[in-house]
Design goal:
Number of domains: 1
Oligomer: single chain
Helix content: 10-25%
Radius of gyration: 19 Å
CATH class: Mainly Beta
Length: 157
């Protein structure tokens, strides 16, 4: 009954990536790691990174890119992002841009990744595949709250 009013349209999606050297192809054994979060408008293809950091690289960061390839494969750069702290071993990165409809589909299907290059590893020191962050529907949360209140009320009687 509660799900009858739920809407199935969601044009803004959120993705996350945990970056590490073991996702590189081939993998590296370095202490570097990072995190990226981005939002994607599935209609326009416009994406924006936020809260994106890296640290403990062996070399100074030289570039950060969004690439198109599945897990375990290297792919082409589809968007050059901005190193907010270039040449540093720890810092932040940001950026925005528009990708094609095919690249939107690839991102939804986990076939895109963030790659940070350094002067020690020019093809990439750390990498993180982008995963869709599940968003619970507001209606489902409301129904869960109603059921929770119902059961709490019954326990008190």
């Amino acid at each position: 009954m509660c799900l009858l009013g739920a809407s199935a349209s969601a044009d803004i999606l959120t993705f996350e990536a945990n970056l590490d050297p073991f996702q590189e192809v081939p993998p590296h054994n370095t202490p570097g790691f990072g995190y990226a979060e981005l939002t994607l408008d599935t209609v326009s293809g416009f994406l924006t990174l936020s809260n994106s950091t890296y640290q403990d690289l062996l070399g100074g960061a030289t570039a950060v890119t969004l690439n198109d390839a599945p897990i375990g494969s290297n792919g082409v750069n589809i968007l050059v992002l901005t190193l907010d702290t270039p040449a540093a071993t720890s810092g932040t990165f940001s950026g925005s841009g528009t990708i094609t409809a095919g690249q939107v589909t690839d991102m939804i299907n986990t076939n895109t990744y963030i790659n940070i290059r350094s002067n020690v590893f020019p093809s990439g020191e750390i990498r993180g595949q982008l995963f869709l962050v599940p968003e619970p529907s507001s209606m489902l949360l409301a129904c869960g709250g109603i059921f929770g209140l119902f059961f709490v009320g019954r326990r008190r009687k």
